[in-house]
Amino acid sequence: MKALLIIMALASTAHAESVDEVLADLGEHTAAGWWFDEKTNGWIPTDPGFTPTPCAVDLAKLRSWGVPASKKFVLFKDSLWLGAGIHSWKSAIKPCQAAVRYRAVWSVIYALEGVMSELPTRKDLEWCVRAWNLSVGLGVRANDSVSLYLPDSWAGGAVGDLVREQCEKRLVTVDIDQIARRLPYTGVLKNDKLELVGHLTPIILGDGNPSTTPAALASANVWFTTRRDRDLCDDGTRPFLVTKREFDAEQRVVKWSQKDYCGRPRFE
């Protein structure tokens, strides 16, 4: 009997330690799951995606252990719908559930911004449609309103309408469109260059000027593309995100890099 009591006491202690550890994790994960965007005056999920959020995993453990609502956790900074301080662990349920849905809708927003900012590939459009289908399963509604940051402007509307117009419809014609764009370059460009010319626009050469001339694109060892990034420079303007692709003699990409520039973009 004495041995049994010792075993039960050890088990109880181990469980209490596990609960404390998970409560500490819950505080960290709830705080880390969101960041406040001062430009839009709203909360944005830190890590868009469709996998279970860390706070959802913490909450599932606490539920399965039957942990009472009186157990507290510490939130060291403000999060969505929950200020910094000491809270019942059940108060994390609402912001954590919102994180699941918001992470999904932001994944769709980023997919839409990608296909609306550049000439999309089939892969880009297929991912946009897949992201939308996954988000619907996580509670995103077709009439949810979203705002999109495009290279030179903002756009927005009902997310379901945007996906239908910008992704689903274009997916039907993307192969024909890209063949048509590549046609003037066939016989001059090949390999990666011929593939990329179908969806990169504009293509900028080392002198900083855009070019559509097949011979010039063929002879250039480096291609640049640029677009405005989401982040802000110190002066409040949006930086230029410059993508650099370097090619070998067979017109295959051998090096790829990106860099933000505040002010005028540089092509170097």
What does this structure look like?
With 268 residues, the chain is of the alpha+beta class. Among the domains are: 15-101, no CATH class; 189-261, no CATH class. The protein has 7 helices and 9 strands. The strands form 4 sheets. A 3-stranded antiparallel beta sheet has the order 7-8-9, with no helix packed on it. A two-stranded antiparallel ribbon has the order 1-2. A two-stranded antiparallel ribbon has the order 3-4. Helix 1 runs antiparallel to helix 2 (54-64), helix 3 runs parallel beside helix 5 and helix 4 (122-137) runs antiparallel to helix 5. The longest helix is centred in the N-terminal third of the chain and has 31 residues, at 2-32. It is elongated and about 70 Å long. The termini are far apart. Residues 1-14 have low confidence and may be disordered.
Strand content: 15-25%
Instruction: Report the structural category.
Output: alpha+beta
| Cα end-to-end separation | 78 Å
Strand order of the largest sheet: 7-8-9
By DSSP (H or I, 4+ residues per run), the number of helices equals 7
Q: Largest sheet, described in full?
A: 3 strands, antiparallel
Q: Level of helix content?
A: 40-55%
Poorly predicted ranges: 1-14
Radius of gyration: 25 Å
Tell me, briefly, the overall form.
elongated
Count of individual beta strands? 9
Order of helices and strands: HEEHEEHHEEHHHEEE
Q: What average pLDDT do the residues reach?
A: 87
